[in-house]
Amino acid sequence: MKTRIYLDHNATSLMRPFVIEAITKAMENCGNASSIHIDGQSSRKLVEGARKALALSMGVTSSEIVFTSGATEAAQLALESAKSMGFDAAFIGAAEHPAVLAYAMQLFENVVIIPLDLAGNIDFEWLDLKLSAAQASNSRAFVAIQAANNEIGTINPLNKISGIVKNYGAALMVDAVQAFAKMPAHDYAGYADWLIISAHKVGGPLGVGALLMAPGIEGARNRPGGGQEKGFRSGTLNVPAIVGFGKVAPFAGEVGEFTSLTACLRDDFESALLSHWPDAVIFGQATKRLTNTSCFAIPNWSAEHLVIALDLEGVSVSSGAACSSGAVKSSAVLKALRAPEQLARCAVRVSFGWNNCKADVDAAINAMLKADARRKQVAA
Ligand code: PLP
After folding, report:
1. Is 182 in the pocket of ligand 1 (CB under 6 A)?
2. What is the second-level CATH architecture of the domain 17-252?
């Protein structure tokens, strides 16, 4: 019997038992994967095994993969690579994670934000025009766009975006953190010049990610250190975490079990939500979304209150609003969608994962009903 219901997998997920087992075993190995002795060689073997598994499921070659400490670092390396290759105009999606958006703003002088429509779709005509203008002015442009959004789960049609990008000789960076092992790899992996992924949203360990660079893309070698990962990412490799990453890698090629489970749970949740709170708004519903993600707002029920009320009832969800210095700010993603401020402040994200079941949906809805009754009692 579960004591808590965890519905915040887009933030991070519970590690799968066989991943814990493999990591625990790898921790018994003491060698540095760069050392030439037997202990080092056995660690190297584990790293290369994980790299191979990841390459296989992503449809790339092992040589395209650089292991990092997570997707944030992978994004930084990708952006530095773009800069070192002479790309000088950064077109960044309005709903990108700060790992991409904030670092691009820091690194490039010319950053253009790609606007979204109210449903979370990018404006293809706008992108076409802007990339054409960049090409005409001899700018070297690249586009950074997510495969899927972390807050509302909307999926970007990368085939279409990449067609426009390639038409103007631009390059494409894809943040596939939320897509990894939740969408078929062939829907995002083949389109990117730089692809960033992370292990911890789908039952893998925290603190490990990867940058995949397509043939023809050169990483930047501007971070001095031990020269690991072909000089693109110095630092002693975190062998146990990489082993854990390798264990969840096959799920990137085989998402059927995950998508059928989570689509069922998400749909059940949303129909119960709308039956009890008919005025609830579900963000991104008109767009293709990740099967595991539901971001909704119940008007006049602040996200802060709802998240805390659910927490007290034993249910973990997250708010679309960020709380900093005591002030609740509405989410940048919902701002990019031009959601009304009052509604955005009520936005809550429920994200399902591999260890959820129908009883978790019922428990979450019951907890919301209880919290709502209390809220109405207090207001009366
Ligand atoms: N990009 C997206 C879309 C994310 O959701 C996250 C994590 O929440 C990141 C990047 C950063 O990933 P990491 O935690 O591996 O640094």
Report:
1. no
2. 3-Layer(aba) Sandwich (3.40)
Q: How many residues does the chain have?
A: 380
73 Cα–ligand 1 center, Å: 10
Q: In the chain, which residues fall in CATH 3.90.1150.10?
A: 5-13+255-379
Residue pair 139/103 in contact by the 8 Å Cβ criterion: no
CATH of 5-13+255-379, one of 3.30.70.20, 2.60.40.420, 3.90.1150.10, 2.102.10.10: 3.90.1150.10
**C-beta of 146 in contact with ligand 1 (< 6 A):** yes
Which pair of tokens denotes residue 238? 């975190």
- pLDDT reported for residue 117: 86
pTM tops 0.90, yes or no: yes
Distance (angstroms) between ligand 1 centre and the Cα of 95 equals 13
Pocket lining: 71 vs ligand 1, CB cutoff 6 Å: yes
Q: Which atom of ligand 1 is nearest to the CA of 209?
A: 15
Q: Is 142 in contact with 87 (CB distance < 8 Å)?
A: yes
Residue type, 57: S
Active site residues: 323
Long-range contacts of 223-229 (CB under 8 A, 24+ apart): 223/80, 226/34, 228/33, 228/34, 229/66, 229/67
How far is the centre of ligand 1, averaged over its atoms, from the C-alpha of 70 (Å)? 8
Give the mean pLDDT of the chain. 95
* 281-322 pLDDT tens trace: 999 999 999 999 999 999 999 999 999 999 999 999 999 655
Question: What phi, psi does 173 have (nearest 5°)?
Answer: -110, 130
Task: Answer whether 219 contacts ligand 1 (Cβ < 6 A).
Answer: no
To test the ligand 1 pocket, which listed residue (145, 195, 198, 349) has its Cβ within 8 A of the most ligand atoms?
198
Q: Can you read off the two tokens belonging to residue 143? A: 């586009």
Going from the C-alpha of 224 to that of each of 165, 232, 235, the distances in angstroms are: 32, 9, 9
| Location of each CATH 3.40.640.10 domain in the chain | 17-252
Question: 202 C-alpha to center of ligand 1: Å?
Answer: 12
